[in-house]
Structures are given as C-alpha cells and as structure tokens.
Amino acid sequence: MRAANVHSPDTSENAWDGFRPFRALARDAGMTRLRRTALAALPFFAIAGAAAAQGQPDVAALRDAALKDDLAWDITEGLTTEVGPRLAGTEAEKRARDWAVKRLTALGFANVRVEPFDMPVWVRGEEKAEIVSPFPQPLVLAALGNSGATPANGITAEVVGFESFADLQAAPASAVKGKIVFVSHAMKATQDGSGYGPFGTARRQGPSEASRKGAAAIVIRSIGTDYHRNPHTGVQTFAEGVKPIPAAALSLPDAEQLQRILKRGQPVRMKLVLTPRNIGKRQSGNVIAEVPGSDPAAGVVLVACHLDSWDQGTGAIDDAAGCGIVTAAAKRIAEAGVPRRTIRIVWFGAEEVGLFGGLDYRAKRGGEKHAIIAESDFGADRVWKVNSQGPATAKPAIDRLVAALSPLGIVQGSTTRASGSDIGPMAADGMSTIELSQDGTRYFDYHHTPDDTLDKVDPEQLRQNVAAWTAMLAVMAHAPEELASPVRPRN
Amino acid sequence: MRAANVHSPDTSENAWDGFRPFRALARDAGMTRLRRTALAALPFFAIAGAAAAQGQPDVAALRDAALKDDLAWDITEGLTTEVGPRLAGTEAEKRARDWAVKRLTALGFANVRVEPFDMPVWVRGEEKAEIVSPFPQPLVLAALGNSGATPANGITAEVVGFESFADLQAAPASAVKGKIVFVSHAMKATQDGSGYGPFGTARRQGPSEASRKGAAAIVIRSIGTDYHRNPHTGVQTFAEGVKPIPAAALSLPDAEQLQRILKRGQPVRMKLVLTPRNIGKRQSGNVIAEVPGSDPAAGVVLVACHLDSWDQGTGAIDDAAGCGIVTAAAKRIAEAGVPRRTIRIVWFGAEEVGLFGGLDYRAKRGGEKHAIIAESDFGADRVWKVNSQGPATAKPAIDRLVAALSPLGIVQGSTTRASGSDIGPMAADGMSTIELSQDGTRYFDYHHTPDDTLDKVDPEQLRQNVAAWTAMLAVMAHAPEELASPVRPRN
Predict the structure, then answer these.
(1) Are residues A20 and A95 in the same domain?
(2) Cβ contact (<8 Å) for A454 and B313?
(3) Which of A445, B37, B47, B232 is most buried by a 10 A CB count?
(4) What residues of A act catalytically?
(5) Same domain, B111 and B135
(6) Residues A170 and A155 in one domain
(7) Is the ipTM reported for this complex over the cut 0.95?
C-alpha cells in the first residue's frame, strides 16, 4: 500500500483535495535528477523525495521511514556528550550555541543564526543540610533557582512541616517566623504531567509565601516522582518586594525521612548551608535554522525545543531530545522536497530559568505570520495524544494529521487548546498551535535532576516521536488551507 | 489442618521422630498458665506457644503467622530513621549500638551486650571530578574505602581507559604511568548476585594494580546495575607495600559518558579532587542478644546481620533489614516457647569496611559449639533459595527445613556449600551453615549508594523473609539431631 502510494501518489489515502504543485520544486536540480532516475533503484528515502517533488508528499511513507531515524539520537547524544550541562547564560550554554550552529549548518539548513539576548544569571553554590537533633544525619537537597543564600557557615533553625502549600498559606506567621519551613505533598506520576501544575506551587510560590511569613528558609519535597537521592531543582521567582530566603528541594527519600522524624514529635533542628549567587546579566540566545518554503505568504511553521539545561544533569530529556526530534523531522521534510511553508527550527536559550528565549522570540518575531507553532519539551517518550488550536480553516489539515498519527498509536485530544513552554505565551496569544503530547509517566522521575542523562532516552520511543513530528510537518508545511490564526501578538 | 495440629500436635505433618520434650518448659509459669486456659479463646500466637510448650513447635503455623510480621519493618524503619547512616568506628555507629541495645532489651531478649573491638577508620572528604578537555563538564563519583587523597586543589591528568580489570592487568606500565586509569566493565544484574565477585575485582584489586603501574589515580565504573547519579562506594585495601592512590567510582551514567568521550578519540584530561582521611583506630563493636535454650550442649544457633552501614545512604537494605529479619524471627521463636538450642542474635559492627565484626567474633567465640550459623545481608527482597552445609547427621533437619520453606516459593540449592559475609570465615572453617538466599536482582541498584534508603524495602517481601527465617529457627533451634560440624575454628 505504501509502495503503491509512492508510485501513484494520486491514489494515496493521505492525499487531499486542492493540494498545489510546488513550482519551486521544478527548479530544484536535485529533484530534476531524481526524476530522471529509475525510481526502483533508489533507496526508499529518495523515492519519498521524488514523490514530494511531483507535488504530493506521501505522509504515511515519510512517517514510517522516520521510524528508522538515527538523527534525533545523534543530536541528543552529541549535545549531551560534547557539551553536557548548559545552564542558561553561562559559558557552557555559549558552547552549546556554537555546537548547535555548527551542527545545523552541517545538516544543510538555511539561515542558521543566533539571536542573542541578555538575561540575569543565578549560579548554584555549596548546598548541604543536616538534621542537628534529635537524630543527627545529613539530608540531600538542591537549591531552587533564584534561591537566597545562607551565610557561608549556614543557619540552624527548627523545622516546621506542612503537608501542602495550602497548609503553609493557611498558617499564621507566628507558626513560621524564624523557622525552616518544610512542605511535603503527594504528587504522583501522570501520563499527561498534570500533577506538575498544582503540586509545583510548592516550588513556585512556596518560597515567597514562606518569606512573607518571616521564615528563615524553606525546603520542599522535590516536585518529582522518583525515589532516588537526586533532588529536583527548578525555577522560582520571589514576588515583588519579598526578601529572598534560602530555598531548596529535598529528594523524595530525604523528604520522607524528614517527615518520619517530624512524626516522632520532638522538636527537629536543621542546619542549612546554601551559597548560590546572582552574577548579573549575561548573554543567552536562540539558535534558529530554516527550511525555506515556496510560499512566503503562507506563514512559517515553527518547531521548537530548548537548548539550555539545568546545571546538574546533561539535559538529555530536557531538552536535547526535543531538539533532536524537531530537527530530525524538519530534515526529513527538507530532503523530501521544498515545502510550501518555511519551516523554522528554534532551539530556544534560557528556557529553564524563565522562558527568556521564548519571550525574546515573541518580542522580536511574534508579529510575523506563523501558520503553526509547536514545541517538543516533555522528554523523549512516545507521543500519545495530539492537541490543537486554530481557526476553522485549519480543520481539514488537523483531520489529516490525526489520521496520519493514528497508526503510531496517537489519539486526538483537545481541538481548542494546545500549548508548550517557550511557545506558551504565543499560544496564549492565540497563535495556531499543535501539541504532540509525550507520555510523561516517568518524566518527573528525572526532570531537573542530575539523573537527566542520555541513558534515560529510549531510542525506539525517540524514533516514534520523529515519525509523529515528520507526519505533522508533512501535513502542515504543505497544507493548502489557511492555518494561521488571525489573532497574533503585537510586538 | 494447621488448627488440628495445634490441638493434636502428635499428628502434625511437621512433627519428627525423636523430638524431646523440654523439661525447662514445665518450669515456665507463663506456659503453665497457658495450659490452664481454654485454647480456643486465645489469640493464634499464644496457641502456637502452647503447642511448643507441649514439645511440638508447629513450624508451618509459626511460618505463616510470620507473614503478618511488623517487627522487622519497625526495626528497619527505626534504625534508618533514628540513626541513619552509621559508618563503622564513628560516633554514628556508637549511637546505632546504643539504639540496638535499647531495642533488643525492650524486646525481652537475654544477655544483651556489646562486645567492643578497635578498627582503623577512614572517612570521606571532598570528592569532585570534571572533564577538563575536550568537553568540559563535571562527573559524579564517590571515593572507594581506603582511597588515597589528592592535594586539596586536586590533580589533573590524562585518562586511559580499560574495558576490564584484566585489560588493566595486561597493560604495560608505560601506558598507565602518571595517568588516571579508568576501568569500565559490563556487570549486569543477576538473581544470585554472582556478578559481584568477578566484576568487583575492578574495585577490590584495581587500585593496587593501577598504583603498581604508576597511575596517578583510578576511577572505576561503579560495581552496580542502576542508571542513577549515585556512585557505588565499597571497600578496597591497597596490597602490602603498594602506595595508596586516589581511587573512586563513577556512577553508571558518568562512566558511560566518559566512555563516549574517550571514543571520540581525542586526549581526555580529568581533574580530580578527593580528600578522604585515615583517622586512626576507633572503637566498634558487635551487639549480641540471646534466646536461651534448654540444652547448652546442643550448641548455639547464630543468626546474624550487620549494624554498620556505608556513610551516604541510611543502610536500609544493607543491612538494617537483615537485622530486622533475624531479630523478628528470633522473637517469634522465643514467644513460642523455650527452644532446645540457644539462639544468638549478632548485629555485627564494621562489616562494610573489612568484616571486622565477624573476625572479632570468630576470634573470641569461634571455639564455642555452634550448631548452625546463618546471616541475612543481601537486602530485603524475598528468599528464593536455601543453601546449606553441615554433617550427615543434620540432613533430616535440612530436609524438614526445605519442606517448610517450599510453600514460600523457596527452592533447595546447594547442600554442600553455604556462606555469608561476616560469617564467611567461619563458614569457610567448616561450621554448619544455612544460607537463605535473597533475590538480588535489584540489590546492586542501591548497594553502597546514597540510594540505600527505607523506600527500597518492600514490606511484603520483608515479611516473606521473616517467615523463612522463622521456619528455619523453628526447625534448627528445636532439632533433636546433631547439627554442628565437628570442624571448628581454633581461637
């Protein structure tokens, strides 16, 4: 069936009415050469390219060929090995940008460039905790982004425990003043990652709330789901006018140990040494590369990931894999012929520490016509659901996409709401968005920990991602319909 | 069937010929009171006790009651929470001994005491590693026991990689001199833990071998099977006359990262900071408690575990759980009536750093008559096999034990070889030994890492262990046969 489609594209199940031949393709010397070659003698991939050159991308064939993809792995392996951790605004992130420019250029993408911006940089220092009494022992923790610092020799104070952020909110300041606040909670793994929003409040708002009530410091149970001694860091920002206090996350084994100790009912004293620093503004940047389309008026298809990582892991699932996935898919579409729409790959900088890359892009380019925006930033496990938002005119293309994704085991989710992290503000502005939702069941086992390393990436599931993204681009970059939402952010 | 046995013990499937009534029991007021009470009104446990008092321990009933045990968990939870890490020879191990004496006394055991001994103490210092070139990034490692130290500001040298200890052995000194040796290897998880012996050579002998060849330092792939950034420490001892060098283990993700970097083919330079110290001789000790038996001439049944732990985890599976298991089983036998043989519980000190507790016990008490020795020190997962060694006279008892363990899913293994760690030298001397082998499939995921914490203990599997040990003690402490081997160590 697939081979028949390649040779007789008009009979393809995945063909659609009104698909326009691309005049630009006729001018492509490579494609012209392909037509002069006996198709049967060509590798499959070149055949798919020839099919596209005849004005008919074979979505199913491109999708299935992508199930053998190695490029996403190569990018993930290369970035995590040859750069490793790459905290936003540091020299390591600069090395990552250089690596990205070199790699994207070597892959043959057009308009490869860095769009720089400045952002404030916070760096981790020493971090130690111990129970002083009644049961002396060390605890493992990691400072949260923008944590305040203790003196070099630390602070010692009594611990007051709360089972949730809501309990901390409800507590009188007198219960907290001068103490080390501890917030535990019951986040469990979910496929769609929906626990991260509500339980993440302890990290995002806990430090400000504790500071407002006069706490000496705050330690939270990591916003994570694994039982390893690898705490989950993550950004938090003290609210306007709130004094920064030391703020850190305990690993789950340590958090439960502290809970057990508190339950013994004796006063618990903790010593805390945290010496992070704000080092001022530094340069970060977005790395951009393109597959030029034949119809500039059709708007760009933006496919995104982020290049920076937290400082303790090598950022394999967060988010080297995302960069591998979107880039491998774009490369496949480029090799299959010139798409109608320009595909713009953006490896955002400084996502982890406050979406600085996404916001910079939105400020500079949010006014350009974007047909579709999409981002891969939820690990490397398989895509299981597709959400979308866009105008009614995009519906036929969405329907074709849903059909093309079904053989990969992907179900349709929302048709009115899709988002992402760096692209989140633009999605909230109303831009047409596709969200290829990855299985997040084990994502929060590794997220923002030293454990985010290459071995957590399953090559087979990574390939399924590339297949899904390839199908998405094959449909959306070529779709004859108007995909762009009339609502666009002002810049 | 079981109830019938209780009321008519002579018909029990588990009864055996020649079983002697215990005259001592007649003097036990509690037992006498029990006989005057309507058995049907008593809780099951008291009934089992009454059965034993009538000279007939119901092995199956005791075993099955132990499947509801909570004591092993309480001991494991208590020791890991209220003491936490307890490195041999430190103040923490002293607190652990105090905790043990208090707990064993409260449980009603007899002759609770500490037998102290001195041993040399090595303590961890700072430990950091980073690739300096070609791809700068930190690596996570942990010093091995008795590691030498670098200067405070570290050393930087080129890395030379070997895939196995044998490859290091085969290498000329010229390939190693002045370099940081790296040994990777392919240890995989096994149910019986049999990979630990051969692959552990890299840790036990690698440092001496590297030092002999003039290496500046050695880092090995952790002797472990998990992909978390928690390196596996463990003891090694430099051979006589060999200069101590810095020696550490990389976590598996870090070891594979280093392998990938080395495979790029450029010279790899590593900076290493390791500042452990030898602090001289300190006191450790074995904690001993007993269930006195009625027949001193029958020899003691020794059930053992170790109290010390490595310094980074809380020693839950290694070996608080072992202490919980053997103690809970002994308590159940004590509650069921006075056994023929004295059951001696030993929580050994200073096992991790060189079996000092076991060797001290052997020197002091190895000349006493031991009917059977057994040790629980391989985690908290279920017992799946029973190995034994002993004289022909013990065979009927072994056969009854095998039959009693079968309903727990336990198979018979060797009948000529059984061992343990602290009891290993005495087993090698030829003492009669029972080895209740635990499933080690995931043991080396946590062994000797910060990840050895309470959450790794599965309460249901822990209870199965207690049931197996209870059955073992019910058979062996009461067995009428001669169990002791004529071979005994000299002391």
Answers:
(1) no
(2) no
(3) B232
(4) 351
(5) no
(6) yes
(7) no
Model confidence at B28: pLDDT above 50: no
Query: Alpha-carbon distance B322 to B324, whole Å?
Result: 5
Number of domains chain A contains: 3
Helix (H) or strand (E) holding B373: strand B370-375
Both tokens assigned to A401: 């996409």
Q: Which strand (E) or helix (H) includes residue B131?
A: strand B127-133
A455:B314 CB<8 A: no
Distance CA A363, CA B390 (A): 81
Identify whether the C-beta of residue A132 lies closer than 8 Å to the C-beta of residue A271: yes
Nearest to A84 among B85, B137, B256 (CB): B137
Residues on chain B bordering chain A, Cβ-to-Cβ distance under 8 angstroms: 77, 80-85, 92, 95, 131, 134-138, 140, 227-230, 252-253, 256-257, 260-261, 264, 312-314, 449-451, 453-456
**Looking at the structure, do residues A186 and A317 belong to the same domain, yes or no?**
no
A249 in the same domain as A353: no
**Contact predicate B229/A426, CB 8 Å:** no
Average pLDDT, integer, range B400-420: 98
Partner-chain contact A260 B81, CB within 8 Å: yes
Instruction: Provide the domain limits for residue A28.
Output: 10-55
**Residue B143: closest CA among B336, B273, B287:** B273
Do A410 and A306 lie in one domain? The reply is yes
Dihedral of the alpha carbons of B76, B82, B88, B89, in degrees to the nearest 10: -150
Same domain (yes/no): A40, A85: no
Q: Which residues of B are catalytic?
A: 351
- Per the domain annotation, does B216 fall within a domain? yes
**Amino acid letter, B70:** D
- Is A230 within 8 Å of B227 when comparing Cβ atoms? no
Indicate whether B486 pLDDT > 90.
no
In this predicted model, what pLDDT tens digit does every residue of A351-373 receive, in sequence order?
Answer: 999 999 999 999 999 999 999 99
Among B275, B307, B331, give the residue marking a domain's end: B275
Task: Give the pLDDT confidence of B123-182 residue by residue, as tens digits.
Answer: 999 999 999 999 999 999 999 999 999 999 999 999 999 999 999 999 999 999 999 999
Q: What is the pLDDT of residue A487?
A: 65
Banded model confidence at residue A486, pLDDT cuts 50, 70, 90: confident
Asked if the Cβ–Cβ distance from A85 to B140 is below 8 Å, we say no
* B344 pLDDT higher than 60: yes
Q: Is residue B481 domain-resident?
A: no
Size of interface A-B (CB pairs under 8 A): 99
Q: Is the distance from CB of B352 to CB of B394 less than 8 angstroms?
A: no
Mean pLDDT of B67-92: 98
**Shortest Cα–Cα distance, B344 to chain A (Å):** 29
B contacts of A230 (beta carbons < 8 Å):
228-230
